[in-house]
Design goal:
The chain is of the alpha+beta class. Helices cover 20% and strands 32% of the residues. The protein is built from eleven helices and 30 strands. The longest helix is centred in the N-terminal third of the chain and has 20 residues. Bound molecules: 2-acetamido-2-deoxy-beta-D-glucopyranose (NAG).
Length: 464
């Protein structure tokens, strides 16, 4: 008992200390050995080409909200949950959870305690950056997600639940530019397309959002406006969610930046000022990448159309037209396999998924090319595994070809993934009837989402 109170005291003391040091100091981590990364923590820059943020791999120990303690098999398990959530969005009608938003409306925390299945998370594969919000402004470590549109962060007084996050929780009453959004506002009625859940209305006429991400992770709270700091300038009345009940966001991040296509997303809100495009380079675990909003450098980019899909208005769809392994097109039993497969590109899915027929042909072709290497047993969702490491197994060239002949030539590190010290696996998996281009395959490429001109571009070697 005594020990427990001692720990509690320590916790309280450290919380108090956290309040008085600057927010920038709060989001540095003692477990990170590279001091160079720390200098970048206030890592926004606005210049002639737009707004630039530094991106961190979710398991980089130097990330401001690192998940470096997670095992790779946990990551793959979470990845499966994200893929089922995305797949069900694309293949079934969405189930509304109106009851929960209404419960917050009635301010009855007891009714809102939805159990969270162990380990369910939306943030596990998502890259991390820092935004500044409020007046005076503070910094918040946020996961970046192209698979959803509403930006939200944990918000005091955390009426129902906030997890432990890096740095102080956003405090609306401490910001002189903070406003609640009333139920009658167009931003409120627009929530249904942003979060896929209808809004609720509190007794005091405040708009309540419910952002859900799969089976059990969600954020629920008040739709709000405050000033977003972009470099040395600012965007007043940025619309975001002030989360009073937040479940499933691992890694001590404060919240989520929605980069989906809906009109409330961060991109859409910044587009009038900066341009309707964003680009990123997702770094490896030991480096940093970038997220840029606004114009982009078109040189060296290979382009393919971003296409509309009746399945979902907020995700980024492209068209896969073939796959080549070691110079040879995969042989598929049906010629319509590619054109029948809705394909999205997603920043938060780790392992690229293909429908079973495409995946099996890919796995067979890679196995054939690597037939001189001894096989190892399957590892979680990865079933094409070899003894050795990505560094010493000579992976065949894998090229994903998209509409218009755009060739995405994957490097070895985008094809194979080391699952432990002696085994490496093909970093693709089979899943349902959709294809999802995941972040392992995108790593170190510059990927441009030119939403205004409906084009997706990519170029190799943009970050380490
Ligand atoms: C703006 O900054 C980014 C990131 O540092 C850089 O890549 C880009 O070239 C700069 N653009 C201009 C116009 O200065």
């Amino acid at each position: 008992m005594k020990v427990f109170f001692f720990h509690l005291l320590l916790l309280l003391l450290s919380l108090l200390l956290c309040e008085v040091v600057s927010p920038l100091r709060d989001i540095t981590q003692s477990s990170c050995s590279s001091s160079k990364l720390h200098e970048n923590y206030d890592h926004q820059k606005l210049n002639g080409s737009g707004m630039h943020f530094i991106l961190h791999h979710p398991r980089n120990p130097c990330s401001p909200a690192s998940l470096h303690h997670l095992s790779f098999s946990d990551v793959l398990h979470q990845d499966t949950l994200r893929v089922s959530a995305l797949t069900s969005r694309l293949t079934t009608k969405h189930h509304h959870r109106q009851h929960r938003a209404n419960n917050l409306a009635a301010n009855d925390p007891a009714l809102v305690s939805v159990p969270l299945s162990p380990g369910s998370s939306l943030g596990i594969g998502n890259y991390i950056t820092i935004i500044r919000l409020g007046t005076p402004s503070s910094s918040y470590a946020m996961v970046v997600d192209t698979g959803s549109s509403l930006t939200w962060l944990q918000c005091s007084p955390c009426l129902i639940y906030c997890h432990d996050q890096t740095g102080p929780i956003f405090n609306p009453s401490a910001s002189t530019t903070y406003h609640l959004v009333p139920c009658s506002a167009t931003e409120c009625s627009g929530l249904k397309s942003t979060t896929l859940n209808p809004p609720a209305c509190s007794t005091s006429n405040v708009c309540i959002y419910d952002a859900t991400y799969g089976d059990s992770s969600f954020s629920l709270g008040y739709l709000s406006k405050d000033t977003l700091i972009i470099g040395s300038s600012s965007l007043p009345n940025f619309v975001f969610g002030c989360g009073q009940d937040n479940r499933g966001l691992f890694g001590r991040s404060a919240g989520l930046i929605g980069l989906g296509k809906d009109k409330l997303s961060l991109l859409s809100q910044l587009a009038p000022k900066l341009g309707n495009a964003f680009s990123y380079c997702l770094p490896t675990m030991s480096s940093t990448g970038f997220l840029s909003i606004g114009s982009y450098d078109p040189s060296h980019l290979v382009l393919t159309p971003l296409v509309k899909s009746s399945l979902d208005n907020t995700l980024y769809f492209i068209k896969l037209s073939s796959i080549r392994v070691a110079g040879k097109a995969l042989s598929l039993s049906s010629t319509s396999s590619y054109s029948d497969t809705p394909t999205i590109i997603d920043s938060g899915t780790v392992i690229t998924r293909f429908p079973t027929d495409i995946y099996t042909a890919l796995s067979n072709a890679v196995s054939y090319a690597l037939s001189k290497y001894p096989r190892s047993p399957k590892y979680s969702i990865l079933d094409t595994c070899f003894k050795g490491s990505a560094a010493n197994v000579a992976a065949p060239e894998v090229v994903l070809v998209f509409e218009g002949g755009a060739e995405w030539k994957l490097a070895t590190r985008n094809v194979l993934i080391d699952v432990d010290s002696g085994n490496t696996c093909l970093a693709f998996a089979p899943a349902g009837r959709v294809a999802i281009i995941g972040n392992r395959q995108q790593q170190t490429f510059k990927v441009v989402y030119d939403v205004g001109n409906s084009k997706l571009g990519f170029a190799s070697g943009a970050c380490g």
